[in-house]
């Protein structure tokens, strides 16, 4: 299975993905987490945030996630992946793809931003920042939506675990 978390920076993708990963590992499932920040440090080092480089980054992540999934591992991916067409491309090239939209308003994401990235984007220090100077195209028909600006983290985790268990069985 490929469990693909998408949403704005600060929406809660990594928080939920980490918790789901830990719970599935504790239940003896083979699971690997590919987090956007970690992948950019290793697999996609040197890529910019242009549309072309973002697409390259997502294609690299999806390649690795597909390899894992094909070999019996639950691949959990937590990346912004702002462009719908690329997520749809992935959906059509992957067996058992589950898109989880981590939905929080831009205002809430900005409030949660401990790194100050949104402020830097608004001041022009960071270019091509998703949600500010670059678009985020929300999924139209994700398998699951977690509304992290109104749900607790535990509620979102439970929703994700339910869909994973249902799809595995």
Walkthrough of the structure:
It is globular and about 50 Å long. Strands 2-3-1-4-5 form a five-stranded parallel β-sheet, sandwiched between helices. With 169 residues, the chain is of the alpha/beta class. It has helices spanning 13-26, 36-42, 51-70, 84-93, 106-112, 117-123, 153-168; strands at 2-6, 31-35, 74-78, 97-103, 144-147. It has a single domain, classed as P-loop containing nucleotide triphosphate hydrolases (Rossmann fold), CATH 3.40.50. 48% of the residues lie in helices and 15% in strands. Helix 1 crosses helix 7. The mean pLDDT is 92.
Task: Please give the structural blueprint.
Layout: E1 2-6, H1 13-26, E2 31-35, H2 36-42, H3 51-70, E3 74-78, H4 84-93, E4 97-103, H5 106-112, H6 117-123, E5 144-147, H7 153-168
Parallel strand pairs: 1-3, 1-4, 2-3, 4-5
Brief account:
This protein is an alpha/beta fold and 169 residues long. It has seven helices and five strands.
Protein traits:
169 residues; alpha/beta; Rossmann fold; five-stranded parallel β-sheet; 7 helices; 15% strand
The low-pLDDT segments are none
Report the span from N to C terminus.
12 Å
- SS class: alpha/beta
The structural domain count equals 1
Please state the CA-atom Rg, rounded to the nearest Å.
15 Å
- Tally the helices: 7
The helix content, as a percent range, equals: 40-55%
The neighbouring-strand order within the major sheet is: 2-3-1-4-5
Largest sheet, in brief, is:
5 strands, parallel
CATH class: Alpha Beta
Instruction: Tell me the β content.
Output: 15-25%
Topology order in helix (H) and strand (E) letters: EHEHHEHEHHEH
**Would you count the extended β strands for me?**
5
Name given to the CATH architecture: 3-Layer(aba) Sandwich
């Amino acid at each position: 299975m490929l469990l693909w978390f998408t949403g704005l920076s600060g929406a809660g993708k990594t928080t939920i993905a980490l918790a789901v990963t830990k719970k599935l590992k504790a239940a003896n499932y083979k699971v690997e987490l590919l987090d956007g920040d970690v992948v950019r440090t290793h697999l996609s080092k040197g890529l910019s945030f242009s549309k072309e480089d973002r697409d390259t980054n997502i294609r690299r992540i999806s390649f690795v996630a597909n390899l894992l999934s094909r070999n019996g591992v639950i691949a959990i991916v937590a990346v912004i992946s702002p462009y719908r067409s690329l997520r749809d491309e992935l959906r059509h090239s992957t067996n058992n793809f589950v898109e989880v939209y981590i939905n929080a308003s831009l205002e809430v994401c900005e409030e949660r931003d401990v790194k100050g990235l949104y402020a830097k984007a608004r001041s022009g220090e960071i270019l091509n920042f998703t949600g500010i100077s670059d678009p985020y195209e929300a999924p139209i028909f994700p398998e699951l939506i977690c509304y992290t600006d109104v749900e607790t983290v535990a509620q979102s985790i439970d929703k994700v675990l339910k869909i994973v268990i249902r799809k595995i069985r």
